[in-house]
Specification:
The complex is a heterodimer of chains A (about 350) and B (about 325).
Chain A lengths: L9 H5 E5 L4 E6 L5 E6 L3 E6 L2 E9 L5 E6 L5 E5 L3 E5 L5 E6 L5 E6 L5 E5 L2 E5 L5 E6 L6 E4 L5 E14 L8 E14 L5 E6 L4 E5 L4 E5 L9 E3 L5 E4 L5 E5 L11 E3 L7 E6 L5 E6 L4 E5 L5 E5 L6 E6 L5 E6 L3 E6 L4
Chain B lengths: L4 E8 L5 H10 L6 E6 L10 E5 L3 E3 L8 E3 H11 L7 E5 L6 H10 L1 H6 E11 L3 H7 L1 H8 L3 E5 L6 H14 L4 E4 L41 E8 L5 H15 L3 E9 L5 E8 L2 E9 L8 E8 L3 H9 L9
Parallel strand pairs in B: 1-6, 1-7, 2-3, 2-6, 7-8, 8-9
Antiparallel strand pairs in B: 4-5, 10-14, 11-12, 11-14, 12-13
Helix pairs in contact in B: 5-6
The chains are: A mainly beta (about 350), B alpha/beta (about 325).
Chain lengths: ~350, ~325
Amino acid sequence: MSQAADPEFLLGQRGSSQELGAWVIGLAFGREGRSLHAGLGDGTVRVAQLAASNDWLTVEAHKGAVLSLCADAKDGALTGGDDGRVMRIAPDGTAHELAKFGSKWVEHVVAHESGIRAASVAKAVHVLDAKGEVMKSLAHPSTVGGIAFDAKGKRVAASHYNGASLWFVNAKEDKPRLLDWKGSHAAIAIHPEGGHVVTAMQEMSLHGWRLSDGQHMRMSGYPSKTHSLSFTNKGKWLATSGAEAVVLWPFFGGGPMGKAPTELAGGDAVMCTQVLCHPVHEMVAAGFEDGLVLLADINTGRVLPVAPPGHGGVSALAWNPSGSHLAFGTEAGFVGLLDLSAR
Amino acid sequence: MSDLIPVTVLTGYLGAGKTTLLNRILTENHGKKFAVIINEFGELGVDNDLVVDADEEVFEMNNGCICCTVRGDLIRILSSLMKRRDKFDGIIVETTGLADPAPVAQTFFVDEDVKRATKLDAIVTVVDAKHLLARLDDTKEAEEQIAFADLILLNKMDLVSEEEAVEVERRIRAINPMVELIRSTKSDVPISSVIGRDAFNLERILVREPDFLSGEDHHEHDSEVNSVAFEVSRAIDPEKFNTWMTDLLAAKGQDLLRTKGILAYPGEDRRFAFQAVHMIADGDYIGPWKEGDARKSKIVFIGRDLNRPQLRRGFEACQVEGAAA
């Protein structure tokens, strides 16, 4: 990777960057702690080792485009593509096909460290075991807009038209808890303590359900659709994209119902496109439509600029499991990697 | 913006020749690459590198507008296709025979991700000259597909007499007086007549003018789709027009399939163009009035149960006070 020059930004001080040449759909650090994977709109997955981040391997993972990429259960990455395949990419870039679902798109993939994985294909969520075998296929009333595991990997939630479905992965009889709310739901997140499910809606608002009593939570006021949702590690805050600031909803003190959200890093009249909370600290990384990337400390509101605008709208963010490394990618195919560990 | 990917929507009843037209577009040597979104229950195979199977998922939007529906599958698919956009020049969406074109059109007005990267180029409807009249009598979708069309391919001309063709064209024009009609056999038409039309561009609104002078009412039956067109010579008061149109679309938006207008505002050298699909409206200034041309404001409604005198009075009342400008 080339060294970025601008010392005003963290990327210039402790980062490196690379032009990968196609829209960055997703980024993930392998859970083994050595590899960084970028899934691109040209169907390839690019793999770098943190120890030698100027060498990017090109893996021809999918025939069309990568549609979704996440860290795989133990190491490496998992991808879904518009060629109907779910691929596993090892930390060294070795790829193999875990599953193939005809000509349908594999729009979303998620994996949990326990070994379980899920992939959404049209109206179905296929659950794959540690060996990559399809354990079960869960049917939904319409195409799935997003999937998420809970923190323990025991439940999987899928958003769709008129609500979301929450399934116990190991249930003998597959019967979902239906969380209903009129409208079309896409991005989805489960609170780290498992008590709330939140979705982003076509109507430019969020909807949430408190699972203990089915209480609805409406979080609205966005000027744009929210594509990215991320809880802080203990679930105190939910960070969201879709506004000209990072919008954080409080999940404490009775919130988010009846509470105003906190806005961070606003003021530039540029839309926030991606958010991802730090895995350990109450800190959020955010990317904007103009390419700006920053880190914001949620408690102090202090903002650290990470990368300057100009390399395309930010389309992906990733933290490694310990939170020492941050990666971002853009629509223009620019990827930055930062080492934030103490020196 | 010029880098928006044009999207052509192909509608038409089963057996009218839609897939034949699609395959002609794809196989003709024009050097262009298309992504094709088809329904999995399509009639015939489609031969193209990038074919996406879609379930037509029509979603209601909870924005208080009862007829505001969008195609959820298109939002997802188009948003994903944009991420690989350097690989094709246009997108063609083939709908099922029974599809209402409104949700497809509305998707391009409503969804920000779709608007950011694509534009609706035209709605092309293929009709079977032999069977259209029967379809119009027994289904509402056939009428809607004609009402929404920017271009109609009057196909299977080899199966009808000239008299039959003229009658079919008369029925089509009663529903949609602005549509361009092309007669064809086996969907054999120049691709340039179908692709790259830019028909939803406000700049091109009413390039094909209906007959404004005719006092004739094409009214055939209340439940049928028909059209009315008016023209006034005094300038239009923007505030009056906005109030009238907002109230009208709120009250009658379900019945008003398409509305198009070009307005002369007082003291404004540019023309104001306006269009709506059901309740969803869009308007902006377009180029100046031509030197020496009369600045006449025009409006066309295509819909069901149109109250012609009431619409005429409403439009006339939007004029500024006083003598003709």
